[in-house]
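Q&A log
Question type: sequence-to-structure
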Amino acid sequence: MMNARSIVSLVSILLLASCAKTRVSEHADWGKYYQAQGIKNACFILRDNNHEAIHYYNKDRCIQRFLPASTFKIFNSLVALETVVAPDDQLIIKWDGVARRPDWDKDMNMREAFKVSCVPYYQEIARRIGKQRMQHYLDTTKYGNATIGGAIDTFWLDNSLQISADEQVGFLKRMYFNELPFSERSQRIVRSMMLREETPAYKLYYKTGWGVKPDNQRILWVVGFIERIQNVKEDKDAMNKSDVRLYPYFFAQNFDIAVGDTATKDWTKIRIDLVHQVLQDYGAIPK
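Response status: OK
Response body:
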């Protein structure tokens, strides 16, 4: 059942389609990629900024809010940089000595913690930011339902904070164009931390998330954007000039898996493979 914010979100998309000539298209055929993995509940939303077009699979789920899990590290990093809790991406937080995962169990800086999605590092970041400042930026940015609840260091993991896939896409688009209520520097640093793949044809930026919903289903997220690279050659004043143009696309994917299925497949890899399949299907990245 959709809540009031979800209805407003859908209405916003439809108004955008009519007022700004944005095309909104459903791609039911994208479901084949999820069905091939035995996934029953999934969604994908893609904003083609170059053609003012929105493409989606499973509209109802695209506007349904869920906990952001570790995709919230994007927002958490922005607030840390803006408040100078982290002067830059090299802020080192020492390991607390509790054994969790080999790639987490060490001192690390924010860029390293973002890459390996180190939860304890970002819990400490949130504690240093504090509830009052965090709430201010949630409200100012209008991030999902903007709800912290009781604990400053778990609210993005315990289902207090929730956000939809289409809201994630809107948030990322604003960050890409430096339109969020943060400095250009903060947004630029976080964008750079999201870069995960770089080829001559495109750059792929994303953040993953893995959380537990109230129904005990696991939700897996991948949110990000692509810069499609095109070399443009111009003949000007009898000189060959090469220019590079970047064409951005923004996306968000989430899907559920049952707790008993978490160890049956390499879901860490599969969720990225699914993103590649959909983006290749659309043509945002080459096959």
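Response note: Residues 4-8, 11-20, 234-241 have pLDDT under 50 and may be disordered.
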